[in-house]
Specification:
The chain has about 325 residues and is mostly helical. The chain contains eleven helices and six strands.
């Protein structure tokens, strides 16, 4: 066996790489290969949202007519259309303003956040409206079949019913727009660029469910259902490529619960509902004061709804490709 060759005395000595400077280390924390890292962008957007929401609220509550629409501290919260306009309109405006600023910082568009303008209130939105109403109808139908729910005539009729129905539709459109754009729009697109689509979806679904636990009258099962609802909605984003379907479905689900079937929505009742309705049976079946979202059968409905989306909207690898970090 021949001995190992001696090292070449004329070969250059290996040079030590200089340690990265403090400035370069800080730059690596702040910047990634494609600009500001996703986590920092989320933080900036959240701060902007809080600033805009606070300013808008402080300005609007100084108007006596607006202040009169807000629920009293310590008192029960009961939905009214006007209250929804204020409580959902302010955060929606703040979210859109924050996103508008972020489009300039990130050099992206609202389409990158799942909100393409050319689809605004178009086919996907109306498909979502129909789908969401069918979902809540299936939910209530299951409760009727299991003798857990009954309708006892109309609480409103004629022009008054049409008026409240239209006003609640607008109010819940604001709810759907705000919650879907915030969680399945900007936050989903931005976090997905950093950690991947489904990890971001799971994290935001948990957050969505946890925030719903702050609703008066909400229960743990209702919070879990809200998380499942969030996962279903992000699945529609994945399959359709935008959040317009989810906005429509969210609006119709809340409108169907609150106005049409006249049951609690996440523990909150409404004035001006269409029907006289009542629950019968154990809370695990009906949801009790939480409403249908507190029933175990809501998970059956969400699973069937996801299965329907799977067949209606075939998988499209380009539909919801995450933006680059």
């Amino acid at each position: 066996m021949s001995p190992d060759p001696l090292p070449d005395s004329h070969s250059p000595e290996p040079t030590e790489q200089p340690a990265p400077s403090f400035d370069s280390r800080m730059q690596n924390v702040w910047l990634g290969p494609n600009g500001i890292r996703a986590g920092w962008r989320v933080l900036i957007a959240v701060v902007l949202f809080l600033v805009f929401a606070t300013v808008l609220a402080l300005v609007l509550v100084r108007i006596p007519a607006v202040r009169a629409l807000l629920p009293r501290r310590g008192g029960p919260i009961v939905f009214t259309p006007a209250m929804l306009f204020v409580l959902e309109g302010i955060p929606l405006a703040a979210a859109l303003l924050a996103a508008l600023v972020m489009t300039q910082i990130e050099k992206r568009s609202f389409a990158d956040y799942g909100l393409p303008g050319h689809q605004a209130f178009g086919r996907r939105y109306w498909q979502g409206l129909l789908y969401g109403f069918l979902m809540v109808t299936l939910m209530m139908g299951l409760l009727v079949a299991l003798h857990g729910f009954s309708l006892n005539g109309f609480a409103l009729a004629g022009l008054l019913a049409l008026r409240y129905g239209l006003l609640y539709f607008i109010g819940f459109m604001l709810v759907g727009f705000f919650e879907e754009f915030s969680f399945r729009g900007y936050l989903q697109a931005t976090l997905a660029s950093g950690i991947g689509f489904w990890p971001a979806a799971l994290l935001l679904a948990i957050l969505f469910g946890a925030l719903h636990l702050n609703n008066p009258g909400e229960a743990r099962l209702g919070g879990l259902a809200a998380a499942g609802f969030g996962l279903f909605m992000v699945f529609t984003l994945r399959r359709t490529g935008s959040i317009w379907f989810a906005i429509g479905a969210h609006c119709a689900w809340d409108w169907g619960e609150t106005f049409f079937y006249s049951v609690p929505d996440s523990g909150v009742l409404a004035t001006g509902h269409l029907m006289n309705s009542s629950f019968h049976g154990p809370v695990w079946l009906t949801g009790g004061s939480v409403g249908p979202e507190g029933s175990v059968f809501v998970f059956v409905v969400l699973a069937l709804a996801a299965l329907g989306v799977h067949f209606i909207f075939p998988a499209n690898p380009y539909a919801a490709a995450p933006a680059s970090a």
